[in-house]
Amino acid sequence: MNLKQQLRHYLAAREMTAADLAKQAGIPKQTVSDWLSGVPPRSLDKLRKICLVLNVSLDELCFGDCKENRKTEVKKQEQQAFVPEALILPINGSVSGLFEVRIKRVR
Q1: For residue 33, what are the contacts with CB-CB under 8 A and spacing of at least 6?
Q2: CATH, residue 8
Q3: Of 15, 47, 72, 76, which residue has the fewest beta carbons closer than 10 angstroms?
Q4: pLDDT tens-place string over residues 31-90
């Protein structure tokens, strides 16, 4: 999840509007509106104020539920564990090491 989705989620969960959030955090309404439309934040200080109002950590606000992210990151790492360029080649019935195979196009 990104900041846009997370903000929408927390606003809906707390039954708040963007204007309410901006007022409580002491930041311009346009800033919150920009974030809700997908504009990336430029000020960590403003994000920190939003986190205080919503009572969430900066990680949760920007990246979503940490447990869900860890699960997806582990799955991504498992999928990327096999690198097709690296092969283990058996020689005389034993494994001799890790070799890198690179193929170049010759014209």
Answers
A1: 18
A2: 1.10.260.40
A3: 15
A4: 999 999 988 888 888 989 999 999 988 888 888 765 555 555 556 655 555 444 444 445
Structure tokens belonging to residue 11 = 């606003």
Spatial separation of the C-alpha atoms in residues 55 and 93, rounded to whole Å = 60
Which single residue is written with the structure tokens 């430029």? 42
Which domain covers residue 58, as residue numbers? 3-73
Q: Which single residue is written with the structure tokens 């509106």?
A: 33
Assess if residue 8 is contained within a domain. Answer: yes
Can you read off the two tokens belonging to residue 22?
Answer: 């901006």
Alpha-carbon dihedral sign for residues 50, 56, 5, 81: positive
**CB contact at 8 A, 18 and 29:** yes
